Amino acid sequence: MTPAIYRIDSRVEEFPGTCTVRISPESAGGARRCSAGQFNMLYAFGAGEVPISMSGLQGDGSYVHTIRIQGLVTRALHRLNEGDSLGVRGPFGCGWPMDKVAGRQLLVVAGGLGMAPLRPIVQALMAGSARPASVQLFYGARRPQEMLYAAEVEQWSRALKVVTTVDHADTGWPGQIGVITKPLGAASVDIENALVFLCGPEVMMRFCIQVLLAKGVATEAIYLSMERNMKCAIGHCGHCQWGPNFVCKDGPVFCYRDIRPWFDIRAL
C-alpha cells in the first residue's frame, strides 16, 4: 500500500516530547474507516515510517494520533506543525472487541502512553455508543505532568469511576501515588461479568494480569494491546512475528487466553 498524503489540521503539545495531532487526507474522499485499537503507519518524509495507534475516532474523515519522541522517525513527526504534510498507510490490525462491552463490568487499565489506544474506548463510553453495566478506569503515569489528555480525564471523572496514580508527585497532587496494580488490586470486581481492556508498558501489563488472575478474572475476559517492531503492517516481513502470530495483522489487540504461552515468556 502506497502512503496517502495527509495534512496536520491541529496539533496539541501534551507535555514536552509528546503531542497529539489530528490529520486529514489532502485528496477528496476522507480517511478510511477505522476502529478503536487499530493503528496507522505514519511516514515522515526523509526519515521513515512508524506504527502509531489511533488515539481518537473523529467520525469526520480524519485520524487522531498521539506521538512521543522515541527515535529518529517519531522525532521528525513530532517536529511537524499545523499545515505540514505526512504519509499515512492504514488502518491496520485488530482492535478492541467493542461487541463484548454491553452489559459487562468494564475495567479500562492504562499505563503511560498506553492511554492513547484506550482513549477512543472512553470517548465511546462518554458518547453513549457503548453500554457496559459499569466502568472503572485506572490510569497510571510517571508524574502528574506526564498524564495524557489531562483535561479530558478530569471530565471523564465526573461521569465514570476514574482512579489516577503516579510514581512520583509534588505536594498538591490529588490522586494516588504508587504503581497501578495497587488500586487495581483493591478494586471490586465481578469475576463472572468482568471485561478488561489493558494497555501500557509490557512489564506493567504483566503485573496487572497477575493481579487480575489472582482475583479470579478469566483469561478470556482480558484483552491487551501489544507492541512489536512492525514494518510492513500486513504480516509479510516477519519483523513482528510473536509465536505463531504477527502483531501487525493478528493484533495489536489480543485476548490474553490466546497469547498466554508467549506472553509469559519474558523477552520473547
From TrEMBL:
Residue ranges occupied by any FAD-binding FR-type domain in the UniProt entry: 1-98
Entry's Gene Ontology BP terms: pyrimidine nucleotide biosynthetic process
Molecular function terms, GO-annotated: 2 iron, 2 sulfur cluster binding; flavin adenine dinucleotide binding; metal ion binding; oxidoreductase activity
The keyword Iron-sulfur belongs to this UniProt entry's keyword annotation: yes
Keyword Iron-sulfur appears in the UniProt entry: yes
PROSITE patterns xref list: FAD_FR
InterPro entries referenced in this protein's UniProt entry, alphabetically: Cyt_c3_hydrogenase_gsu, Dihydroorotate_DH_Fe-S-bd, FAD-bd_FR_type, Flavoprot_Pyr_Nucl_cyt_Rdtase, FNR_nucleotide-bd, OxRdtase_FAD/NAD-bd, PyrK_electron_transfer, Riboflavin_synthase-like_b-brl
Binding note for cofactor: Binds 1 [2Fe-2S] cluster per subunit.
SUPFAM superfamilies: Ferredoxin reductase-like, C-terminal NADP-linked domain, Riboflavin synthase domain-like
Binding site for [2Fe-2S] cluster: C232, C237, C240, C248
Cofactor(s) listed in the protein's UniProt record: [2Fe-2S] cluster
Keywords, in A-Z order: 2Fe-2S, Iron, Iron-sulfur, Metal-binding
PANTHER family for the chain: DIHYDROOROTATE DEHYDROGENASE B (NAD(+)), ELECTRON TRANSFER SUBUNIT, DIHYDROOROTATE DEHYDROGENASE B (NAD(+)), ELECTRON TRANSFER SUBUNIT-RELATED
This protein's name: NAD(P)H-flavin reductase
